[in-house]
Amino acid sequence: MQMEELFRVALGLESPWRVERVQFTEEAQRLELWLDFPAGSRFACPECGKRLCGAYDTTERTWRHLNFFQHATLLHARLPRVDCPEHGVKTVAVPWARPNVGFTLLMEAYILLLIQSGMTPRQVARAIGEHDTRIWRLVHHYVDKARERADFSEVRTVGVDETSRARGHDYISVFLDLLGPEQGRVLFACEGKDADAIYRFAGDFIAHRGAIERVREVCSDMSRAYIKGVAEHLPQAALTFDRFHIMKLVNEAVDSVRREEAAERPELKGTRYLWLKNTENFTATQEIQFEQVKRLKCRTQRAWFLKTVLQEIYRSGTREDGPRLLKAWCAWATRSRLPPMVEVSRMFRRHWAGVVRWFESRISNGMLEAFNGLIQAAKRRARGFRSTANLVAMVYLLFGKLDLRTPAPAR
């Protein structure tokens, strides 16, 4: 009985539970433990926890436990039901696992640790020899429970951006706390990138003790849907258009000029990244190449120069002179006779309040852009997350700063 006692202590079992039998099967590389309780044992009612009742009947159950070295470990037990005079027949809660779950609490904590360390549920499933559906159920449970405890009462500044779930137009919207005590925390994620996403965020925000009227700043791209949604559902918030998104649009305009001009000037072919990359990030070879293409005196060079001036305005423009410098830039871009740059200038004028708001708020979605890259990397490792709900759960798990509170086995 020394081995059974050793495993009882290791599992933290207390009366009336004991380890009845231990069996190791070398061929199957499996360790199995049978847990039981003496006849006449009494258990607390799982509803009230007060009444001690005798076992009404039992059901055989099995749980997956932490591996013993490389060997899968299973716990078997007769799970008793008690007949409480007040609450009727109820299944007893065991100290080593949650009700109706096939993993022990220690196994669940280990699985969550692996996922938070960078493994995908599919990779974890392969590593422990389980189907990934069981892993996803565990992830959803702990994420949902942790989000119930989330408190957004101190959030005042929100960023929103979309990320793709799959190829095509399958997106989720992700909302981030930009400046609060939990800066960089994902507040909410949902399917779609329309005005309804803002509506759903507002409802979830209120449900987590957030006050809509206290949200004073929102940062987003120039999506009409986001603009409409913020105006309708976050009426007290000033909208700042993300400068990373703005510079992305300007880069696209520069590349559009280059592509059109390359049809008549073949020397511009293969130079795309020279015009889009910041010069301070050039390699030695790229510096030499760029000095050569700059001598071409082409339309692409003019578009690139407009881009660099705009970058400098964002870099050094103050609250007082930023709008004035940007207005001058728009006039210059309009006179450039470069249609893509002219269109950028018109777009700035159409959304002027949100564009110049940046010089006041100085907020951006740079952190969301970084998260987007990490989400896409995780998605590639997992070869897709199969459903939008799974992707949303992973976003919360990785970036939600959740208090998971994985319960320790009872003693």
Task: For this entry, give a set of tags.
411 residues, 21% strand, 11 strands, 45% helix, elongated, six-stranded mixed β-sheet, alpha/beta
Structure at a glance:
This protein has helices at residues 2-11, 105-116, 121-128, 132-148, 195-207, 224-233, 243-262, 272-276, 284-294, 299-316, 322-334, 339-350, 352-356, 358-361, 366-382, 388-399; strands at residues 18-25, 30-36, 42-44, 52-68, 71-84, 88-91, 157-166, 170-177, 185-191, 217-220, 238-241. It is an alpha/beta fold. Strand 5 (71-84) and strand 6 form a beta hairpin.
Structure, described:
45% of the residues lie in helices and 21% in strands. 31% of the residues are buried. The longest helix is centred in the middle third of the chain and has 20 residues. The protein is an alpha/beta fold. Strands 1, 2, 3, 4, 5 and 6 form a six-stranded mixed beta sheet that branches. The two termini are 21 Å apart.
Number of strands: 11
Terminal CA distance reads 21 Å
Q: Would you tell me the overall average pLDDT? A: 89
The number of helical segments is 16
Helical residue percent band: 40-55%
- What's the shape? elongated
Radius of gyration: 29 Å
Oligomer: single chain
Largest sheet: 6 strands, mixed
What fraction strand? 15-25%
Please provide the ordered H/E string of secondary-structure elements: HEEEEEEHHHEEEHEHEHHHHHHHHHH
Helix-strand category: alpha/beta
Low-confidence stretches: none
